[in-house]
Give the backbone structure.
Amino acid sequence: MSINTIINAATLAITAWSIADSLGHKPEDPDKQVSVSLFTGIAPNAGGSVPHLAVWDGGGSRIGQYKGDANGHIDENGSKSFTISPTQNGNHQATPEYLLVVMQETDAICLSGLAVSGNGDQWTWTGDMGYTCGAQWYPSKRTIGTSNIPIKCVWLDSDHSNGIIAKGLSLHMPSFAGDQGLVDQYKEDQRRLCQNSARMTFQPEPVVPDSIPRFFKHAPEYDDTGALKNPNEGIDRGTRAYPDGTNFHIHDTKKRRHARDVNPQGLNVTGVKNVMPGHVVISNLEGHSAKEVCEHPNSLGPDFVNKNEGIFCDMETGKWWPLCDEKTGTDEACFDLDTKTMKNYKPGSVQTRNEGHPVPQKEYKSHEEW
């Protein structure tokens, strides 16, 4: 995975609170109550059911919970803030260091960011961290603060429909403070970020609202640069975003139509890759790559175009094609943005690209441009 993503995420973490502040959400009793803000990716079908939330202090004692509303909904370009009172620790003031997000309803969300505050502390996490560690993702046009770098969003769903593996997400929020010393340690060895169950785990089954995540045996200590004094503490698994033993075929449902490639990290992630076959996203944003969306084993979402890159991604097959322009030869198949179809080939023929891939026939009912 790209180490640059970690660097970007660190920058985003510093500015993310400008979004949380803009919501105007203030707990009634900020000295005791915890505030959690969720940001969905601004992307197709990114909005969905409101999840269940639970927070713990640094010692692993539960502070409180927010029960997800069966009728609650977060828009695909939206955000939502929640207040959690310390009803499960005797109403004592506490710092919310651990967070568990659990999907209970069946409308999936693609999460691009979290902001947590309480007892004078505040932390943020972005979907780029999940992408870096191998979670299922899709591009988003959401940016944070003054950054013009779009953040990826990561998928959570309770019933694993459409090939979504994770039902929940557990995080140790101080691990995403964004201090340069900490970021440098993650760059040096990504296991410290990605293979650490207490730090970040995308939870498949079983996970319920009353589940208890993994805690650090000893509270992590940091030096003046924000670096961990014991950076390898908590490395405990061989897989990245998901736990060891996760059933990566958990989403082999009737909706499965196109098999994914084998994950280069050894995760045999299979299932649908395109969850909206009648829709295409056309992006003009730098930081997006249609080629990456196609080739990445854990991308999940509709067909994708990046105009600056000049590439169309067919998510049905995970193969990419050039956009048609004056340089495209008459013998080369390409994607025409005006008609949103493949051109320069005869339907039903066996003409293929140089790599030997059959040319897809495309017809869309809807599209959006970023």
User: Anything to note?
Assistant: Residues 279-369 form one domain. The chain has two domains: 3-203, 279-369. The longest helix spans residues 3-15. The first strand starts at residue 34 and ends at 40.
